[in-house]
Specification:
Blueprint (H helix, E strand, L loop, with lengths): L1 H24 L6 H12 L2 E4 L3 E4 L5 E11 L2 E13 L1 H5 L5 E15 L24 E17 L4 E17 L11 E14 L3 E12 L2 E10 L4 E9 L5 E13 H9 L4 E2 L1 E12 L2 H7 L1 E13 L4 H11 L9 H4 L1 H8 L5 H6 L5 E13 L2 E10 L4 E9 L4 E10 L5 E10 L4 E2 L3 E2 L6 H12 L18
Length: 476
């Protein structure tokens, strides 16, 4: 045993001496052109190492490269302040390269899709001949990105997305593709991703964080947190690509989120103040975005109490409608009644004209409930209503996101029984809906009939069809 230990110690000492000698004597920069050519051939893109190269021992044996640029047709797709590659020592002694770790420090990614739908990084991995496997099995202990920045533009849709201060850690990355052309179906890993800020044309998200686990085509993102609504937010996403079509499941909930922040990020206006609870669950599948819309099923809801509407006194507006019937019920704000779905349809709505006509002021919303069921891309109102100091309003109907149209949506101002005092129907495309005139239950021909109607309701006479019997009670 002593001899074995002695021999082992000698071998280890020799290896350490050889390694140290290699680090101090080898000029890794002399291999620059060969490394650039090998990487360019593997990626089928231009690769340039402008900065200094070196060999590292701590925290791991490997190679470091500074000021690295990867591009296509003379334009950078990826540039990084530093790239580190960890190498397994034993395979290296057999003249084999086995990468154990890979890292980018302060990388900039500029991704672009042109009008024809082609990305500026295609092809990122060169396709070999038919006699070779497209992908080969690999294994990596860790892959990381530190302080990354990504800017993506889509010339086909006009959209743009920017991610800042992103850190990515992926561990135990492995693939057993064995020549299959769909490597994501065989990849496995555990990872964590965090981004300081994400900006799109219409919204901004801060402090995005999530854990992700991949297991041969099934990916679970859980938990997922971000600062978008200004409250306690948490969600999860499940992705399944093991079948011929993509299967997607999304859950998200936010409690006590600040309503005004939500609308400010959508419309850059102060519309309402108060706290809301919001949740949705959605599952879909398909090969295209259109197919996924048609297959989407789930539910969405939000509710809140004691909200302050900055720009409009709803009670005053309702009294104006009651008197003259010149205003539209949609002016009350379909986005309140349509909840998280309606905000996407009415985010550009301008209340200035209504505000002036009704004399301005602020209005209270004592309670708001908006619950929807989603089936095959169509959202149907289940319990959708709000109450003010003196009135109660409810909504029924469907929002068809497949055909992008209102489907027999009815908004109604109710009496204490839940019967319609007057109502209005909305149909047609989201972009140009057909809004019918306000329709009272009975035409008010004169003050005598109006007085009789009010007296009859006061003493409980007459019958009516209850339009709404949900959770929002009539104000006392």
């Amino acid at each position: 045993m002593k001899k074995v230990l002695f021999v082992g110690g000698v071998v280890l000492a020799v290896l350490v001496i050889v390694l140290i000698a290699f680090v101090f004597l080898a000029d890794i920069n002399s291999y620059r052109s060969r490394i650039e050519s090998a990487a360019a051939d593997a990626l089928d893109m231009d690769v340039r190492i402008k900065g200094k190269m070196g060999i590292t021992l701590i925290p791991r044996f490997g190679i470091s490269m500074r000021d690295v640029h990867i591009g296509n047709k003379g334009v950078d797709v990826i540039s990084a302040e530093k790239v580190t590659i960890g190498l397994n020592l034993i395979p290296l002694l057999r003249h084999e390269i086995a990468i154990s770790e890979f890292g980018f420090v302060k990388p900039d990614l500029h991704l672009e899709r042109d009008e024809k739908g082609k990305f500026n990084f295609e092809p990122l991995i060169k396709k070999p001949g038919p006699e070779k496997a497209y992908y080969t099995p690999f294994q990596m202990k860790e892959f990381g990105i530190s302080k990354g920045h990504l800017f993506y533009t889509d010339k086909k849709t006009g959209g743009a997305t920017e991610l800042n201060d992103c850190d990515v850690t992926v561990r135990d990355l492995r693939s057993g593709t064995n020549g299959q052309s769909e490597p994501l179906k065989k990849i496995s890993f555990n990872g964590h991703i965090a981004c300081g800020k994400i900006k799109t044309k219409d919204a901004q998200v801060s402090n995005l964080r999530f854990d992700i686990k991949g297991n041969e085509g099934i990916f679970d993102i859980d938990p997922l947190t971000m600062d978008f609504f200004g409250g306690t937010e948490k969600g999860s996403i499940g992705i399944d690509i093991t079948k011929d079509v993509l299967h997607l499941r999304i859950r998200y909930a936010a409690s006590k989120f600040r309503f005004e922040k939500f609308f400010e990020r959508l419309s850059q206006k102060k519309i309402i103040r108060g706290e809301m609870n919001f949740s949705f669950e959605l599952s879909m599948k398909g090969k295209s975005f259109d197919e996924m819309k048609r297959s989407s099923d789930g539910e969405a809801s939000w509710q809140g109490q004691n909200l302050l509407f900055y720009n409009l006194d709803l009670d005053r507006l309702i009294s104006k409608i009651e008197e003259s019937q010149n205003f539209s019920l949609i002016d009350i704000g379909a986005f309140f009644l349509a909840g998280p779905l309606g905000t996407l349809l009415t985010k550009g709505y301008d209340f200035a004209g209504v505000y002036i006509e009704t004399g301005g002021g602020e209005g209270d919303i004592r309670r708001l409930v908006s619950r929807w069921k989603i089936r095959h891309g169509v959202a149907e109102a289940e319990d959708v209503a709000l109450s003010t100091r003196h009135n109660r309003i409810a909504l029924k109907g469907k929002l068809d996101f497949v055909r992008e149209r209102f489907d027999n949506v009815t908004e109604a101002v109710l009496d204490a029984k839940g019967c319609i005092k007057f109502s209005q129907k909305i149909n047609g495309p989201f972009s140009n809906p057909r809004v019918e005139k306000v329709s009272p239950v009975k035409s008010v021909i004169g003050p005598v009939i109006s007085l009789l109607e009010k007296t009859k309701r006061l003493f409980g006479g007459g019958k009516c069809d209850v339009f709404y019997a949900g959770s929002v009670k009539h104000p006392e």
